[in-house]
């Protein structure tokens, strides 16, 4: 296990040139969960949707001594009940060489600062039900499970069918 020197940890905003690194980080998650076959994203997808005039997400990249240590990919959201903006963390990953060194917590703290600087007041995320290590980590740093909520989603052909139910656009 590598011990991170706090002075050597750098967290920076990703640029379009980081698309391959972002994809590699996402693939680390798929490998960790035993579901690499579920990842169909490409580096071009990250370049296309994450950078430019209307990015769909932001990414913070952690580096230790110039080596990739982890990333946090998030995007803006809005709570209609709170009447305030926040962010949804889609992915948080730390390279296995740097796990247990504080990288994940540093990424979350920096993400919270970025969100707060834009007027945000909360972070949300979901975690794979089988990922007990991540669940315990999130609870330890204050992101608590919300038992009154359940995530519902629709993808692929089912999404296309739903979008095409009413051709009038209504």
Provide structural commentary.
With 170 residues, this protein is of the alpha+beta class. It has a single domain, classed as Gcn5-related N-acetyltransferase (GNAT) (Aminopeptidase). Helices cover 32% and strands 23% of the residues. It contains 5 helices and 5 strands, in the order E-H-H-E-E-E-H-E-H-H. Strands 1-2-3-4-5 form a 5-stranded mixed β-sheet, with helices on both faces. Helix 1 packs across helix 2. The chain is globular and about 55 Å long. The model has no long low-confidence stretch (mean pLDDT 91).
- Give the overall pLDDT as a whole number: 91
Largest sheet: 5 strands, mixed
Secondary-structure element order, as H and E?
EHHEEEHEHH
N-C termini distance? 55 Å
Number of domains: 1
Low-confidence stretches: none
According to CATH, the fold-level topology is Aminopeptidase
User: Into which percent range does the helicity of residues fall?
Assistant: 25-40%
The CATH architecture is 3-Layer(aba) Sandwich
State the name of the first-level CATH class: Alpha Beta
Broad shape = globular
Structural class: alpha+beta
Overall number of strands: 5
* Global Rg: 17 Å
Instruction: Give the amount of beta strand, in percent.
Output: 15-25%
> Major sheet: order of its strands?
1-2-3-4-5
Please identify which CATH superfamily we are dealing with: Gcn5-related N-acetyltransferase (GNAT)
Tell me the number of helical segments per DSSP (H or I, 4 or more residues long): 5
